Every structure is written in C-alpha cells, then in structure tokens.
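Protein Record: Sequence and Backbone Structure Tokens
======================================================
Tokens: labelled as protein backbone structure tokens, with as many entries as the chain has residues.
Task: work out the structure tokens from the sequence, keeping to the layout shown below.
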Amino acid sequence: MCPERKAVLEHELRLLPAEIDAAPERHFITYCVRMSARSWFDDHFDATSLWEGVEVTMTLFDDM
C-alpha cells in the first residue's frame, strides 16, 4: 500500500470509534465505509450511498 493510501486509511480509522459509539447498530457498515482506502481504486471513495437501505443482521456474523 502506498504512503498516501496508508495515510488516508489511518485518518479514516481514527474516525471509526466515535462513529461506532454514535451508532453502534451500524458498526459493520461504518467499518466498511471507513475501509475505502483498502476497498476501492479511489481511496477517497465514499461508499455510504451504496449501503442505503441495506439492513445488516450481525447475528449471522456472530454465528459463523
């Protein structure tokens, strides 16, 4: 991972705890959105709109 992309990821991960505390029911979605530097070609891509209307059932993940 290039230094610029690493810096973007570090910045996004610093925001993660406060956002999860503010909306714990959305923690999986928040995590996925904040991982943009690892997930998308454009490391500044905001995937928030892709998650609109998506309901994540975390108990499925807990049972895996």
Notes: The chain has a mean pLDDT of 89. The chain has one domain: 3-62.
